[in-house]
């Protein structure tokens, strides 16, 4: 499916525009079905966007938020994506939203993935909105190059849900929604910032293995158009 690049003069401009687009899409889903769902990424990039989105005036009590991926760490760990969402998105008007964490207090990451799959099933078939990020190594969600479960995670025939991933570049074991869960969101966004990430994107758009740069799975095979939001 085609992708469209939306470029902005600054990270603040991007955050405001993306927050407006996401708020409009959530409101349209609520008007149509009474509820709306969004899966967001962690990392360093989305913080300003989260803060902007948290101030938008929508029916947040009808919105369920979850994560595209998470480290297998509890929410008080400084590296937790849940902590980032708590501090920056579940604030202001968005405090009224429901948050479904991927991390579960389970004996293993595999058991946590099973529990999280059950708990998110009702909101992910498909998501109204998915916001992806991308690492400098071409990973997206926790689809890491060399990842223990990468082939399964990006195989379109792997069912919707959450699986585990371990990789050298990942730090802790990870929990990640599979490609099939993310690729058909009504609004599928790739949010990246900086010249370095633009170069990584250009490389990913060229030829080469998906296993080398897993973002290629999304750019090449997502059934929804990929809306790329970029600022310097
Ligand atoms: O590990 C992760 O990194 C990516 C990109 O993060 P950034 O710090 O380069 O913005 C993120 O999309 C993913 O959710 C996160 O777990």
What percentage of residues falls in helices of 4 or more residues?
A: 25-40%
Bound small molecules, by name, code or SMILES, are: ligand LXAUTJHC
CATH architecture: 3-Layer(aba) Sandwich
Count of runs of 4 or more consecutive helical residues: 8
Number of strands: 10
Number of domains: 1
- CATH first level: Alpha Beta
Main sheet summary = 7 strands, parallel
Query: What's the overall geometry?
Result: globular
Oligomer: single chain
* CATH domain topology: Rossmann fold
Query: Strand content of the residues, in percent?
Result: 15-25%
A few lines on this structure:
This protein has 232 residues and is α/β, with parallel strands linked by helices.
Could you walk me through the main structural features you see in this protein, from its secondary elements to its overall organization?
The chain has eight helices and ten strands. The protein is of the alpha/beta class. It has a single domain, classed as Rossmann fold (3-Layer(aba) Sandwich). Strand 7 (162-165) and strand 8 (174-177) form a beta hairpin. The longest helix is centred in the N-terminal third of the chain and has 23 residues, at 11-33. It binds the ligand O=C1O[C@H](COP(=O)(O)O)[C@@H](O)[C@H](O)[C@H]1O. Keywords: Hydrolase. It comes from Rhizobium esperanzae. This is 6-phosphogluconolactonase. Belongs to the glucosamine/galactosamine-6-phosphate isomerase family. 6-phosphogluconolactonase subfamily.
